[in-house]
Structures are given as structure tokens and as C-alpha cells.
Amino acid sequence: MKSLKQQTILDLVAKYATPLYVYDINIIKTKYELLKQYIPKQFKIFYALKANPNPSVCAFIHSLGAGAEIASSGELCIALKSGFLGSEIIYNGPGKTDDDIAYAIENKIHLLNVESMDELYRINTIAEQAQCLMKICVRINPLCGAAQAKMHTGGDSQKFGVDEEKVDGLIEAALKLDWVTLSGIHIYVGSQILSHKVLLTSIENTLNIACKLAKQYQLKLETINLGGGLGVPYTDSEQEFNVEEFGSGLAELIAKISNCYDLSETELILEPGRFLVSDAGILLTKVLSVKESRGKKYAIVDSGINHAFLPFRMNKKYSTVIANKIDQPIDSKVIIGGALCTSMDVFTTEVELPHIEPNDIICIFNAGAYGFSASLLYFLSAPMPAEVIIDNDGQDILVRRRGRKEDFLLGTDF
């Protein structure tokens, strides 16, 4: 979103104040169309709501033709409210409650991904109570993970899925149950993978596992869910994910695997989240004070890890500018510190910025994914940030009002 004009940013701050998230849906559209252009037509995109569950963002992505990947009843509710049909939704997550499962079955979602033996039996029982046959995929934790994944969700010991060497027992159990139908498998090894070759290696392993199990149990593979993992660069030193080469590699893999198992009628699923929305978002925050501490300069801003936890959690040196001084020369290195009363609340390591002073507007790029939704929103009872989208016509629309002090009393007796 670095193409957003300086005056536009300052106008948005004047209109909506700070802290403020801004999402440009045209960038989301460009990323989605890039994927659709290069991946084989057989693939279906299910947007991972966890990346950015703002209902207006979700509704727009649905309008592009995507399905929804959700991991909680709350996300299921948002997906439905955003226009996704139950038949366009798949449900992941290792800790689904009985109420979660019942809610998913009630709304006739496309697939439930099963992650343990006891969950399998609970799904079957709840489906029987609802008199509704439920399609499932078995999530497998493969023996091989992805070395370059920033956060690992497959390989080694994991809370996710069923270990590859133990999956036979779950498949055999599923085939004996009356109220679930085994559609296929799901494997997702990790997130923020920047090398298309690394991701393709993992996908090849997934396809081999799926086809081996299909032959072993004489299954018709209706679905192979390949998960997400497509990364985005957060610094100038990181590479862009090569979508064109990724698409070519996928086509080659499908052709190769099809020599031993016919995948022509198999639904192949990708679950991108960060890739679609990260670059579409910025976080705007105002400098409250500037000071030095033992040789280091700090700029204290009106946002914090309660609004943007990911820069701290992933230790990222996000691309950062002073919005009202974009054309000014670099003056010094600055640590961006949040407003919260905790030493955790530091946005960045030292970044090089122009001369910084109170009331400057800091713009943090690549904030469209895992910003608002993945933050400590209630920490220290600080009001939540507002969210704005820039629509197809370049118009700004408030899609979440700024939080109020009184919001933290909701649900209490006060």
C-alpha cells in the first residue's frame, strides 16, 4: 500500500484520527486475481478469515469468488454475515467444542477438518442428533514439515492434526461411522513461507500422502486441502513470493501425481490469508513524545501491541515512514514504542527516519493481516482503533468505529 498518496493519508488522519487501520480493497483484488491467473483452474481459494476478519473485507473477498476458511464459531458467524454460504465454508482448528460443531452442522458448511479421534466421534454423534450427514477431511501432521515456515503447524510434535504414522486408525474409524463421510485429507505445515520451492515440496508430500491413503483404503479423493503458507515480504531484504513459478509448479505436480492417481475430479484447496490482505493495509499512529534513553531515541505513539501485536510477536522490522515527512532526509535511528505501560510494547527495532517530533504521523505498512484481529485488544483497557476501507472508486468508508472507554464495561454488571 506504499502507493497511497501522502495527502490522502493525512486527510484520513484528519477525518478519522489515530490509531487507524486503512485497507485498500483494490490491492486485495490484485492479489486475488494474481493467484487465480497462475494457479491451475482445479484449485479453489478459501480465504483464511483469521488474517483479517473485518466483515467488509470478508464481504469483498467473497464477491471475488473465494470461499472462507474459519477456525472458530465467531469466524463462522462473521463469514455468514459477510455473505458466504455454508457450502462455501471449511472449518479448521484443534479445539472445536460441541457447540462449535453443532453450529457448523446446523449451517451445513462444506467441510469439517477433523484433528483427533475423539473429535471424530463427537462430530458423528452431533451429526446424528441433527440428522445431517457431515463431510469431513482428516488433518494430518506429516513427518516432514517446512524448514522455512515462520510458524510451524506441521512436522515434529504438534497440537494440530493426527500424526501421519497414526492416521490409519482414524481413517478406519471414520469409514465405519454412519453420520460422517470421509472426503479427503488436509495438511498445512506452516505460515509465512517466501520460497515457492519450499511450499511446492511440502505440497508434493501432501499429494503423495493423499494418494497413498486413497489407494490403501480404496477411497475416492473428493478433496485435498493443501492449506496456506504463502508469505509476504516485511522488509526490503525479503523476497516476493513468486506466484507465477508457484502456479507452474502446481501444474507440474498435478500432472506427475495423476500418473498414479486420477485427480481430475478432486477438489484442490488453498487457504491464503496473509498473502491476500497484508499489503493492502496500513496502521497510522501519532507520535505523543520523543525522548532519548542512554544513547537510543524513542518515539512514543498512541498505538501499541494492543492494536498491532504481530511486529512484537514475529520480531519484524516493518517498513515504516513518517507520513507527513515522506520526502525528508533520514535523520536518525528511532525505536517506535507503544503507549502501554509494559516493556513488551515496542513496535520495532531501530528504524531510520527523518527528524521525528510530537504530532508526526507514523505509517506502518503491511498491516492488513494479523493486525487488529491478532492483537491484545483489551490489554490495559485502551480504546480499540478504527478501521477504514478504500473502495474501488477510491472513497474512504468507516467500517469499524473507534472504540470507547465504556466498551470495556460491556457484559459486566456496571
TL;DR?
With 414 residues, this protein is an alpha/beta fold. 29% of the residues lie in helices and 23% in strands.
Descriptive notes:
By secondary structure, this protein is of the alpha/beta class. The chain folds into two domains: 93-270, Alanine racemase (TIM Barrel, Alpha-Beta Barrel), CATH 3.20.20.10; 279-409, Lyase, Ornithine Decarboxylase, Chain A, domain 1 (Beta Barrel), CATH 2.40.37.10. The protein is built from eleven helices and 20 strands. It has helices at residues 6-16, 25-38, 55-64, 73-81, 98-106, 117-130, 167-176, 196-217, 243-257, 274-277, 310-313, and strands at 20-24, 43-48, 67-70, 89-91, 111-114, 134-141, 151-152, 162-163, 180-186, 190-191, 223-225, 267-270, 281-293, 296-301, 320-322, 332-337, 351-353, 361-364, 386-390, 396-400. Strands 1, 13, 14, 15, 16, 17, 18, 19 and 20 form a nine-stranded mixed β-sheet that branches. An eight-stranded parallel β-barrel has the order 2-3-4-5-6-9-11-12, surrounded by six helices. Helix 6 (117-130) links the parallel strand 5 and strand 6 (134-141). It starts with 5 loop residues before the first helix and ends in a 14-residue tail after the last strand. The mean pLDDT is 91.
